[in-house]
Amino acid sequence: MATWLITNTLAAFLLPPGCLLLVTAAGLLLLNRRKALGIALVAVSWAGLYALSMPIIATALLRSLEQPYTDPATLTSGDAIVVLGGGRYYHAPEYGDRDTANQELLVRLRYGARLYRALGKPMLVTGGSPRSDAVAEGQVMKQVLEQDFNVPVRWVESASRTTAENATMSYALVRDAGVKSVYLVTHAWHMARARDAFERAGFTVIPAPTLFTREGPRTIVDFLPNATALQNSGIYFHETIGMAWYRFKFLLSSRS
C-alpha cells in the first residue's frame, strides 16, 4: 500500500495536468522577482495544458504507442492466454455491492474471452491488491470471466502491483507447467511496455492488443479542449515514462 501511494503521488506531479500546474505555480511565484520569466512559465504551462486537452493531439500521442493489428490466431501457436489487470469498480451496487471489473478491465476480459473461444488455450489472469483490497484483482477477473463470459480460468496471479510484477509473477506461476509462449491481452497503447516486461521475464509474447485508438471525421471539436483528451494525453506520458523507467531498472539489474 505504501509503495502504491508513493508511486501514484509522484505520478500525479510528473504527468499532466499536475506537472503543468507545478510550472504555473512556479511562474506565479516568480512574478514579483523575475516578471518576464514568471509570465513565460505561466504562458507555456497553459499553452501546454490546452494542447494536451485537444483531441487531435491526444489521439496522435496514443496512436504513436500502438502497433498495427495482426490477428493473434494467425501467428505462432501459444501455450496460454494472459489477461492483464486494468482496474476495478468498487462496491458495485448492481452487482450485490461487490467489486467487479471497471470499464478498462472489462475491455481486456472481453477480448480474452473471444480469444479463448477462438483458440481454446488455458487462461491466466494477473492482478494484485495495490490498495490492500480484501480481494485481489486477479480473483475479480476470474469471477467475471467464469460467471459473465463462461470462460474457465486455470491460473490466477494475485500478488502483483505493477506490469513488471505481472510479468515476473506470472512466469513463476506457470513455468513448471511448461508455459513459455503466451497470447498477451492488454490495451493497444499498453502493449509495448507490457510486451517488453513479459519478454524480459522469460516469455515468448504473441501480442493480442485491444481497443485501438480510432477517430471519426475531423471537425472543429477536435481542436477544442476536453477532459477525455487530457486523460488520454496523461496515458501517453504514463506509458513513455513507464517504459523508460523499466528499461533503466532492467539495465541496472543486468549490471549488478
Could you write a compact summary of the structure shown?
The chain is an alpha/beta fold. The protein is 53% helix and 14% strand.
List keywords for this structure.
5-stranded parallel sheet, two-stranded antiparallel sheet, 9 helices, globular
The DSSP helix count reads: 9
CATH topology value of the largest domain: Rossmann fold
CATH superfamily of the largest domain: HUPs
Give the amount of beta strand, in percent: 5-15%
The biggest sheet amounts to: 5 strands, parallel
The gyration radius over C-alpha positions equals 20 Å
Helical proportion?
40-55%
SSE sequence, one letter per element: HHHHEEEHEHEHEHEH
What kind of oligomer do you see?
Answer: single chain
The end-to-end distance, rounded to whole angstroms, is: 28 Å
The tally of structural domains comes to 2
CATH class of the largest domain: Alpha Beta
Let me know the average pLDDT. Answer: 93
Q: Write down how many β-strands occur, each being a DSSP E stretch of 2 or more residues.
A: 7
Q: What class would the helix/strand composition place it in?
A: alpha/beta
Strand order of the largest sheet: 5-4-1-6-7
Overall 3D form: globular
Stretches where pLDDT is under 50 for at least 5 consecutive residues are none
Tell me the CATH architecture of the largest domain.
3-Layer(aba) Sandwich
